[in-house]
Amino acid sequence: MKRLTIEQMTLQNFKGITDLTIAFSPTVTRISGMNGTGKTTLPDAFAWVLFNKDSGGHAPGSDDFHEKPLDDAGNEIHNLDTMVELRCNVNGMPFVLRRLQRENWVKKRGNADAEFQGNTSQYWINDVEVKLTDFKARIAEIAPEDVFRVIGMLSAFNALDWKERRKQLLAMTGDVTESLLHKPEYEAITMECAKRGIDVDGLRKVMTDQRRNLNKELDMLPVRIDEAKKALDDVTPAELEAAQVDIATLQAGIEKLDAEIANARANSSQAKIEREIVDLEDEAVSIKRRITGTHQRQKDALQSDVEDKRIALRRATTVSEDAERLLEGRQTRITELTAQKESLRKRYAVVYEEQYQDTVTDTCPTCGQAFQPDLLDELRKKSKSAFEAHRDERLLEIQAQGKDCANQIKELEGMIAVMTTDCSRASEAVKARQAEFDEAANKLHEFPAAPSYASEPRIAEIEARIAELRAQQGTTPDAAIAELRANKADLEEKIAAARAVIAKHEAAKNTTARILQLEKDQKATAGNLASAERLLTLIEKYVQDYCSLLEESINSLFPTLRWKLFDTQINGGITDTCVCMVPCPSGLIPYGTANTGSKINADLEIINVLSKHYGVSLPVFADNCERVNKLNPTDAQMILLTVTLDRELKIERE
Fold first, then answer.
1. Same domain, 283 and 156
2. How many domains does the chain have?
3. For 121, phi and psi rounded to 5 degrees?
4. Running DSSP on this structure, what letter comes out for residue 38?
């Protein structure tokens, strides 16, 4: 393991320090003093040399970090060299880093005064000047910048975005997926994943989509069955039998009339012409029947298409409405969180503006004697210091809650961006289905109510020939033939009515068959849904076991801390998270709500584990140590920064 320690630090014109040299113990160095004496300046100087940032990650020149000294008005003091030197030790070998920053003043032609053109820096390693790239490369050999920060600064790891924290924790343990999937109870998941060529997470999404689609199909099938049942219009068995008997009887009557008409025509002088007319009329009727059949089939196809388009429109509308409701819920949650964040901001301002009220009496409450002035001043200073410490702790707690609100808002905004796209797509799908339905309905509406025979030239030919034959006849058929033909027409109308009854029965048979098929589909869909839900239930159990096993694997690396890597939602779903849980007398509490002492010791435990994982030990700057009764042990070099009543920095080496 690489071990970096600081032996000595020298600062010149850095922040509020003009000239300071501090020697450090390789184990523990305590640096104490009043607020404003320069304790936090030391970790800022360390970070500035290594990474050109302060210990909080702020760049020079920002509102939060100025590496140069400032005057009473808050402006940078010019014409000063800013220098920090770190005399370090890496595994027993000297490692001296020095950075010198100078202002660049340029006197342009024609100007009497020089103008400030920015800063330039020089770098040394072991007293040899090097380029910035070589300087950074040598530091990176010890550890990358992100590792330096999480191992060398308390609270740095928990200050990371939860996804980055989670990523680093997962990298510290092996993958538990394979060992879990080898269990016999998860054989169904393993086989399904192998068959589909996807992982468990992908299978979970596929089965969730499948369940949603099956539920929608199950919702639609009763509607379609109900519509088919409403369209069912059958005849009674007696009506059907009567129609069949009527057709047979009437057909026999027509055959008899045909024979009589033929006999009458045979005895007529114009029989030949009449027979030809009858043949032509029969041919015309046959052609018209064929055209009528084609017309009806086309109309039935258009009606079926309209029904399919109506069902597709209803499905698309349901999907769009569900997406809109879900989006509205997320937006409402953002409004609630925004209001909560604003309330925390106002609460922060109120606490920040609280002023110390002197509650120290001039006399001893026990003996009643007046305190000595020096003792009275010290008591009041301690009382004020305790008030300020308590106020700072409350401010940090409010700030942590505000950050949590902001993180939730940011996550919800990301979800809303995706959901807005889904809503837009669903709305476009509704518009597309509506357009398809309107187009189909228009086609049906514009379809002729009755067939047209004008497109068949043979009918015109037949009618012309009949007219010609009528002219040749000179006279209409005699009264006997006319009466026979009238009787035949009457029988044909009755046959048509009887055939309509049979056709109605055939349509009812088809509708009944469709209802049976829909009910069969409903049963099959319900079975598929049950299978999908069983597999999803097994997947959820696998995910829970996976979560528990993964948390157990990571938590085994930490002596006391526990990491919450998953959240269980109200609907039973599991989402990723990464919350550090700190032990307390009542159990475990989130890191953000723990007191300062618990946070510092939690940070030390994290640093110990990360140091072991990355194979590097770095100096640890621990601020606010006056709030901790006992620090957790660590092998790293500790630099403890403590607030006391000392007006100048006090250095104690152990």
1. no
2. 2
3. -125, 150
4. S
CA distance 58 to 64: 6
DSSP tag of 615: T
Tell me the C-alpha distance between 558 and 550, whole Å.
13
Over residues 387-433, the pLDDT tens digits come to 889 888 989 999 999 898 899 888 888 888 888 898 898 899 989 98
Residue range(s) defining the domain that contains residue 282 = 278-476
**3-class state of residue 404 by DSSP:** helix
- The alpha-carbon radius of gyration of the chain (Å, integer) is 46
Q: Which amino acid is at 361?
A: T
How confident is the model over 146-183, as pLDDT tens digits?
Answer: 898 889 888 889 989 998 988 888 888 766 667 777 88
Residue 461 inside a domain? The answer is: yes
Q: How much is the pTM?
A: 0.51
Asked which of 410, 445, 476 is the last residue of a domain, the reply is 476
Residue 619 placed within a domain: yes
Within a domain: 179: no
Q: How many CA within 13 A on the CB side of residue 204?
A: 14
Residue 270 backbone dihedrals phi, psi, to 5 degrees: -105, 30
Whether the Cβ atoms of residue 565 and residue 551 lie closer than 8 Å to each other: yes
251-288 pLDDT, tens per residue? 888 888 888 777 776 665 566 777 778 888 888 888 88
Residue 363 lies in a domain: yes
